[in-house]
């Protein structure tokens, strides 16, 4: 089978590849390996880096962030190397869905921010850097991780268009919508003024 073709069957294979890679729960694996407890019973119950940080192990949280971002990037880079652009975008979307809704964990995964930033860096590194910078500036100024993620995701389609990657806009609109959906509880707390700030116990 020619994996570089854009046929429906080949695209389905790239989607399956992206989903499988994205669904690897690195946070859960690291927490168990490092005897940090079951993430699903700690803090928010999320399997991402933010909840790993709640265990008190900054190294594990940083490694989770890198690996969750890395799996999104790897899915895209491999697809870009062996397939058409549409396959790379499909692999990106599937990797994101795999992280948020992993079949191995009853479709209860993370919120997808690290994976989102990783796949952006792989799809178009200037766009990825712009999104990461947006997250960082918001985190420093506002000190809300969730608000930083929502801002970076919400601005990503605009940034893509401004950087000449209009072909990515619709993918980013879908990913941003999913990130907002995954953060709906955070959005409610931001409105109520009860959202926890970065570094706050």
Kindly describe this structure.
The protein has 201 residues and is mainly alpha-helical. It folds into 2 domains: 1-111, no CATH class; 124-201, no CATH class. The protein has helices at residues 8-22, 26-33, 49-53, 58-82, 85-100, 113-123, 125-142, 145-162, 169-182, 184-192. Helix 4 packs parallel to helix 6 (113-123). The termini are far apart.
Radius of gyration: 17 Å
Multimeric state: single chain
Low-confidence stretches: none
How far from one another are the termini?
Answer: 53 Å
Largest sheet: none
Shape: globular
Structural class: mainly alpha
Helix-strand string:
HHHHHHHHHH
Number of helices: 10
Defining traits:
about 70% helix; 2 domains; about 0% strand; 10 helices; mainly alpha; single chain; globular; about 200 residues
Sequence-ordered SSE layout with sheet pairings:
Layout: H1 8-22, H2 26-33, H3 49-53, H4 58-82, H5 85-100, H6 113-123, H7 125-142, H8 145-162, H9 169-182, H10 184-192
Helix pairs in contact: 1-4, 1-5, 2-4, 4-5, 4-6, 5-6, 6-7, 7-8, 8-9
Short structural summary:
By secondary structure, the chain is mainly alpha-helical. It contains ten helices and no strands. It has helices at residues 8-22, 26-33, 49-53, 58-82, 85-100, 113-123, 125-142, 145-162, 169-182, 184-192.
């Amino acid at each position: 089978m020619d994996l570089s073709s854009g046929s429906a069957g080949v695209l389905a294979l790239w989607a399956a590849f992206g989903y499988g890679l994205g669904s690897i729960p690195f946070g859960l694996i690291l927490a168990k390996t490092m005897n940090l407890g079951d993430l699903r019973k700690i803090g928010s119950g999320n399997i991402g880096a933010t909840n790993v940080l709640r265990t008190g192990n900054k190294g594990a949280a940083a490694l989770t962030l890198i690996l969750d971002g890395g799996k999104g990037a790897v899915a895209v880079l491999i697809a870009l190397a062996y397939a058409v652009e549409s396959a790379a975008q499909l692999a990106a979307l599937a990797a994101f869905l795999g992280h948020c809704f992993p079949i191995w964990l009853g479709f209860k995964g993370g919120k997808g921010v690290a994976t989102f930033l990783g796949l952006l860096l792989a799809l178009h590194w200037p766009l990825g850097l712009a999104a990461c910078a947006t997250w960082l500036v918001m985190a420093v100024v506002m000190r809300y991780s969730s608000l930083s993620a929502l801002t970076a995701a919400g601005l990503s389609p605009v940034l893509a268009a401004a950087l000449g990657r209009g072909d990515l806009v619709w993918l980013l609109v879908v990913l941003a919508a999913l990130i907002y959906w995954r953060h709906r509880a955070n959005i409610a707390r931001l409105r109520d003024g009860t959202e926890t700030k970065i570094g706050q116990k």
